[in-house]
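Sequence in, structure out.
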Amino acid sequence: AGQVYSLHLAGGSLYAGGSFDAAGAVANTNSLAAWDGAQWRSLRSDLLFSDPQEDYINAVALLPDGKIFVAGDFNDSGRPLVSNIAFWDGARWRGTGLGLEDGSTAFLGGDGYAVAVNDAGQVFVGGDFEELGGLPFSRIAMWDGSAWQDLGGGVDGDVSALLIRGDELYVAGGFSTVGNGITAVRVAKWNMRTKTWSAVGNGPPGGYVHALAFVGDTLYAGGGDFPSNVECCLWKFNGAEWAPFSQRYRSEFFAGPFGSESTVLALASDGQRLFVGGAFLDIEQRNPLQRFETNELFVYNPADDSVALFGAGADNGTVPARVRAITIANDGIYVGGQFTSIASTAALNIARLSGGGWSALGTGVLGEDVVVGAIAANGADIYVGGSFETAGVQAFNIARWNAQSRSWSALGCGIARNGETVSIERVASLAVQPQGLPNAGLYVAGGILEAGCKPSVGFAIYRDVGARQAPQTGRALVPLVRK
């Protein structure tokens, strides 16, 4: 069994990161692999975990010059420490020499939860850490290709989501202040040009924000752990204030008969609609009062305030299903998490939705306590991260799926998790910077201790990525049944 925590599409392949040692028929992937559309492939075999059962990748990002960054919870106690962060230069994994530390012990390191890269090649990493390369950084930092840079003092709580839009980096998580005491509750933005922090309204009302997405000019935030007097788990910001995501549907989703423990874990937009995934069974219409079974996944269309469902949704047998990652790619929508089928189509923890319906990615990803936590796309390359051991081939916590050849491959020897961390996520986030842009590579964040058999705590880079591929034009939206 295994888990995928991050997916990224780049260069015709889907890159996967997480906690796994194989992807499809490819063994020894060490939590990082790529799917080319027909089969998995390993991103070489020199990324080792100190504890393959516990180490993981949380995030992957791809840079224009081919570097792949990975972040998570991994380490190699027998080599120089590169805390939870590393990159792939096209031939081997390398540490930045500046990994993530949690401020309490250098061995445990810190966890990277989110990674994003802009066209200039600036790589932003957020998570739960207080040091980078022995210097103080508060839970967020920027890698310029040679050194870490501070973002105005950082934030005072965990960072779980990053989203770049124009000159602004949107940051979300469990914080209440940013920079030098600026009040910004759970969501804030950093201007990459002026290098200043600002609040995003008064923040969503309570809870912890796990995911962000824009549909048009409207920002959506999904999360959980909201107070009992606040609707959970999806809100929108219209530029002035936060409000429930819909007038027709409540922002409170239900995970069981008593509506407990529901949360939104993933958001993605195709430009017109919002894809919503997480841990929830039902969504409730306000008037007339009616509940609809969503089973961890639905699509919201703001244009007509409607919701579309996917039949039986995500199912995981006797174990609760979860949708943790959603990515829009040229050939469809990729969904990852913990499930054995989606919309009654057999698919192990990752699936694709296209005009022809749902389909599996080969044999999917497998491993102990398997989960797909991140997906990133670059053309036909779909990068997958999480916690797993196989993805068509042996792939530890990260792999690549190529949509053209329909095959998996490993990314070296993958990602190893810091065995002392309590988080189940190995790879939590992936971001790709295609070849031709500065600092090209696949960037990975997570509970990482080692990448490519080399120490790298919380964050890593994998360089072997393809050039940017133009989005398909004139592609029809995937038809959905509205409610």
